[in-house]
């Protein structure tokens, strides 16, 4: 589905699956203040993503013991978003992105979601690391597109390591700085200044 144009209300929509949503300083929702969201699905009916830079203090071992050895540092649960916080979405980075692995659904390149009901031992050789998210971020049909048009999100290309950085608190300014120019300047925007 990624890269396929789809018609919405008579106009073509390019799928944003696998891209980053980076919160702008104009975004007023505290659930998404200075967040970086990886879109794992974007279709005419809506979009679904996970917040990459909100680590909790709950160890993966405490919730999904069998998977903890595959969890990248920090090996804790992340707040994926405000929707269904009792559910879990697991991102994985494959060692060989073109190899088909049962339970792995590609999002972009070597990164995808993994079915947590699969035995992690069977995946150990194929997976370079996982990150587990409690809940997710969701948008109904046209809602995300409107938020982007309103200036709430920058839509940027993801790098394969973005979902697995060792210092997730640094991801928001890091992604903005690598864009260069005026976008890099936004990375230095004070967190406590409100835009009208």
Summarize the structure.
This protein has helices spanning 60-63, 120-123, 143-149, 171-177, 181-186, and strands spanning 5-8, 11-14, 20-23, 36-43, 46-51, 55-59, 76-79, 83-94, 104-108, 111-114, 127-140, 153-156. It has 196 residues and is mainly β.
Span between termini: 37 Å
Percent of residues in helical segments?
Answer: 10-25%
Mean pLDDT: 89
Low-pLDDT ranges: 1-12
How does the overall form come out from the CA principal axes?
Answer: globular
Residue fraction in strands = 35-45%
Sheet bearing the most strands, described?
A: 10 strands, mixed
Radius of gyration: 17 Å
How many E strands?
12
- Number of helical regions: 5
Element pattern in H and E: EEEEEEHEEEEHEHEHH
Look at the helices and sheets and give the structural class.
mainly beta
Fill in the keyword field for this structure.
two-stranded antiparallel ribbon; 5 helices; 12 strands; 38% strand
